[in-house]
Amino acid sequence: MTYIAIKDLSLTYQTKTKSVHALSHIDLDIEEGEFVSLIGPSGCGKSTLLSTIGALLEPTSGSVTIAGQTVQEVRKQRKIGNVFQEARLLPWRTVGANIAYLSELAGQRPRQSEIQEIADFVGIGAFLNSYPHELSGGMRQRVSLCRAMILDPMVLLMDEPFGALDAITREKMQVELLRIWEETKKTIVFVTHAIDEAAYLSDRIVVMSARPGRIQADYVNPLVRPRE
Ligand code: ADP
Ligand code: ADP
């Protein structure tokens, strides 16, 4: 059954000198619990599409709904988890306080036990009192993932989350993300330009092409590893 429904979505950026047609008439249905990768060359509109799914950008036309609600409503309830290429942590707050931050903005202060539980789950339970600058890039991305997961998001939107990590750390994080996905069954939309990463992680691979951004192909991943 369709969970995320993207209908006839177009987005044109207006700059002082030109209009950039970043997305053109995109239709895409995503099911609950699916792990979908969006791939394609640089500039084909992957980030724009992901940002529109998360209501960080307003489309020029078309709509996105999640479980029948507009994505703007879902975002207002802070039920969208975002993970970006940079962790975007607040440097003056501890890891624990960073994890709590978005919930606090939503007027809920998570219990310490809740923060501990999610941090343990994502492998940073021992670092709650550390500051972001004391952590490696991989660890900072785990904090960013915890900050998103503590919201119990309806969808996890990840924009090249491992793109800035070294190869070994990236591989560790991919294994970790798969475990988290298998245990939580979250719906994940994952942007990457690395086909091997998409093939390793996702059930489904949506290929975009540029100028203007369209969906060129939509595959059930034939390489998907056996899942127990
Ligand atoms: P991708 O994530 O696949 O690299 P983007 O979604 O970032 O692609 O960009 C799609 C197109 O929109 C590109 O041509 C890019 O240059 C353009 N673009 C992205 N952001 C803006 C912006 N804020 N203003 C104008 N053009 C933009
Ligand atoms: P704004 O509404 O001005 O974009 P917010 O106060 O909502 O910022 O959020 C503060 C910071 O948290 C920003 O860096 C933003 O990118 C990030 N953020 C906002 N919402 C989410 C979310 N659902 N998941 C992860 N990070 C988020």
TrEMBL record:
Xref: PANTHER family: ALIPHATIC SULFONATES IMPORT ATP-BINDING PROTEIN SSUB, TAURINE IMPORT ATP-BINDING PROTEIN-RELATED
Keyword vocabulary terms for this entry: ATP-binding, Nucleotide-binding, Transport
InterPro entries: AAA+_ATPase, ABC_transporter-like_ATP-bd, ABC_transporter-like_CS, ABC_transporter_ATP-bind, P-loop_NTPase
Ranges of residues in domain ABC transporter: 4-228
Source organism superkingdom: Bacteria
Protein known as: ABC transporter ATP-binding protein
UniProt GO MF annotations: ATP binding
Keyword presence, Transcription: no
